[in-house]
Amino acid sequence: xxxxxxxxxxxxxxxxxxxxxxxxxxxxxxxxxxxxxxxxxxxxxxxxxxxxxxxxxxxxxxxxxxxxxxxxxxxxxxxxxxxxxxxxxxxxxxxxxxxxxxxxxxxxxxxxxxxxxxxxxxxxxxxxxxxxxxxxxxxxxxxxxxxxxxxxxxxxxxxxxxxxxxxxxxxxxxxxxxxxxxxxxxxxxxxxxxxxxxxxxxxxxxxxxxxxxxxxxxxxxxxxxxxxxxxxxxxxxxxxxxxxxxxxxxxxxxxxxxxxxxxxxxxxxxxxxxxxxxxxxxxxxxxxxxxxxxxxxxxxxxxxxx
Amino acid sequence: xxxxxxxxxxxxxxxxxxxxxxxxxxxxxxxxxxxxxxxxxxxxxxxxxxxxxxxxxxxxxxxxxxxxxxxxxxxxxxxxxxxxxxxxxxxxxxxxxxxxxxxxxxxxxxxxxxxxxxxxxxxxxxxxxxxxxxxxxxxxxxxxxxxxxxxxxxxxxxxxxxxxxxxxxxxxxxxxxxxxxxxxxxxxxxxxxxxxxxxxxxxxxxxxx
Lengths: 306, 209
Description:
The complex is a heterodimer of chains A (about 300) and B (about 210).
Chain A: E1 5-9, H1 12-39, H2 61-64, H3 67-82, H4 87-104, H5 108-132, E2 140-144, E3 147-153, H6 154-179, H7 183-192, H8 197-226, H9 235-265, H10 282-304
Parallel strand pairs in A: 1-2
Antiparallel strand pairs in A: 2-3
Helix pairs in contact in A: 1-5, 3-6, 3-10, 4-6, 4-10, 5-6, 7-8
Chain B: H1 10-29, H2 36-50, E1 53-56, E2 59-62, H3 66-73, H4 77-91, H5 100-121, H6 126-153, H7 160-169, H8 171-191
Helix pairs in contact in B: 1-4, 1-5, 2-4, 3-4, 3-5, 3-6, 4-5, 5-6, 6-7, 6-8
C-alpha cells in the first residue's frame, strides 16, 4: 500500500476550503427553497386521503403501470442503491432516478422539497467527514501550515459524497412511486401484496386526522398569540408549550373516541371499500424485470469495478 | 434527527427492518384489535405534537417526544411511532423508506423504555408524576441519540466522528424535551389524569392474542 500523501497548504486556504462549499450549499438550499415555495399552490397541500374526483392523473408509463409491480420494483431498486459503495455507480443511480422522473412527468416541486428535507443531515456528513475520518495508508490528505492536528482527508470527502449521492438518488425515486397513483390505490396495492390491510387503514386514518389536528393546533396557537404569547428562549415559553401539547392531547383523545363511535355507527367492521380493481398485464412485468435488471447491473458494476 | 437513505451499511439497514417488524408485531399483539383505528387517530395527534418548534436562541428545535408517546401509549407506542414514521416518509418529505427500520428502532425503543419507566415510578402524587415525566422525556431523547450514534458507528471507524457530532447536537434537545415533557405530564395530571393510567388503551385485562 502507498503511504499517506501529504499536500501542504497555507492556513488561509483552509478557510477557503471550508467556507466555499459551506456557502455554496447554503446558497443552493436558499435557492431551492425559494423555487419550491414559489411553485407551490397557494393555501393547503392537497389532502391525499380524499380520492380525486376526476381521474386527474397523468398518462405516462408510470401512471399506467400496475401499482403492485411499481411498488415492488421501486423498493427493490431503493435497496439496491442503498447497498452501493462507490461514487461512480451512485452518480449513475442519480442519473437513472432523474430519467425516471422525466418519464413519469411529475412536478419537480415536491422532489425539491424532499431533497431539502434530507439536505441538513446530508450536509452534516459532507462537512464533518473530511475532518473526522481517520487517516489510512493510501489516503490523500491536505495538511495546513500551523495547524497540524487538523487534516482534510479526501477519502472522507469521497465517502460523504457517495452517501449524499445515494440519499439523493433514493429520495428522487420516492416521488414517482407515490404521485403516479392516488394514495389509497397505492395502499390497496400494498395490501394485495400481503401487507396487512390494517396497516393501510391505519395510515389513511392517521393521515386524515393529522390534517384535522394540525388545524386544531393552529387555532389553539392563534388563541395563545392573541392572549399575548410570544416564543422566547425562557422557562415560561416551555411551560406554555407543555400545556399546549397537553391540551392538544386531551382534545385529540376525546375526538378519537367520538371518531371511533361514529365509524362503528356507520357499520365499520375493520374494512374500507376497495378503491380500485387491479389487473396485472405482461407489459407490467416486463417493465419491472427491466428496471430490476438495471438495479442489479448497478450493484454488479459497484462490486466488480473496484 | 432522522437517518436518511444510503447512510447505513445494507446489512444494518435490513437487520433493523427485521428487528422493527418483530417489535411492531409484538406491539400489535399488546393492543386490542378494535383499538387499532383509535391508535391510528392518536398517532396523528403525536405527529402534530412532534412538529411543534421550540425556540432555542437564534434557531428553534422541534420536539421528538418519544418519552411522552411511551408514557401515554405504553406497549402500543412502538406501533404508533412506526406508523408515524412511515407516514412521514411517504407523504411528507422526511426520512427515507430504506432507513425506516433504523429510524423506527431509534424512536420506538426509547418510547417503550420510557413507557415502562413512567408507569413503574410515576407514583400517586402530582409532583412525582411531573418529575418522573421530565426524567422520561430526558431519557427518551438520550436513548434516541445513543441509538443513532450506535447505528452510525456500525458503518465503521470512518463514521465515529459524525456519531460524536450527532450526540453533541442532542444535548440542548434533551434539556428542552425534558422540561416540556414535565409540563405536559403536569398538565395532564391536573386536567385528565385518566390519560396517564397504564390501563389506557387496554381497559380490559386480557390483551389481544
